[in-house]
Design a protein that fits this description.
The protein is 23% helix and 25% strand. By secondary structure, it is an alpha+beta fold. Strands 1, 2, 3, 4, 5, 6 and 7 form a 7-stranded antiparallel beta sheet that branches. The longest helix has 17 residues.
Length: 202
């Protein structure tokens, strides 16, 4: 599907490569995974690790030493990262994946979280993602569970029904992926991009 409000695979891949290149420059952790030679088989991903109170109180979130201070969720640091061995604190691994939908010709945001040190162990639910992970009242209500089209494992994802409209609004952007992600990610999962990415859209 081509036309206003869409992005082709070639555009998505070019946008993703420039996005990841800048991420490497500013040590932001995004990477390009998968097979770039097959449409729809490559995606942008980033994994983060924090600590959460066993009572699910977001005031007790911590950031590990290898995470930046302006992390995805902007939680206030309460303790020293090296003191995360407290029995009341448990690890939370989160991942954001940005894929290209062949059916809709738009980017799609996938998300997963695990209350453990390892991906795949003790996954969080949709309700938990909307409460203690995001720590905000979501404006985007289309968060549901589906199989990751590349990995074949359960992920939470945002239905792409609103993406055509957003891409139409940002049609003059030099990097539609960044413009789309900065809008959808913030509204849906409180995922905030570093301001340096703005220069890719100009």
């Amino acid at each position: 599907m081509d036309g206003p409000g869409t992005i082709t695979w070639d555009e998505f891949l070019a946008n993703a490569e420039s996005f990841v290149e800048l991420s490497n420059q500013i040590s932001d952790g995004w990477e390009l995974r998968g097979n770039k030679n097959v449409p729809g088989e490559a995606y942008v991903a980033r994994q983060r690790k924090q600590y959460i109170s066993s009572s699910n109180n977001t005031d007790n979130y911590l950031t590990l030493a290898n995470s930046d201070s302006d992390d995805d969720f902007n939680f206030e640091l309460k303790l020293d990262p090296f003191e995360a061995t407290c029995p009341n604190e448990k690890p939370l691994v989160t991942e954001h994946h940005v894929l290209w939908s062949m059916s809709y010709s738009v980017p799609v945001l996938y998300f997963n979280g695990w209350k453990s040190d390892f991906s795949g162990i003790n996954p969080i639910s949709v309700e938990e993602a909307q409460s203690f992970v995001c720590n905000v009242e979501l404006r985007y209500r289309e968060l549901s569970q589906a199989m990751h089209p590349i990995l074949g494992t359960p992920f939470l994802y945002l239905h792409p029904c609103m993406s055509h409209e957003l891409l139409q609004i940002t049609s003059s952007s030099k990097n539609k992926l960044v413009s789309w992600l900065s809008t959808v990610g913030t509204a849906a999962l409180n995922l905030k991009l570093q301001p340096e990415y703005c220069k890719l859209t100009l």
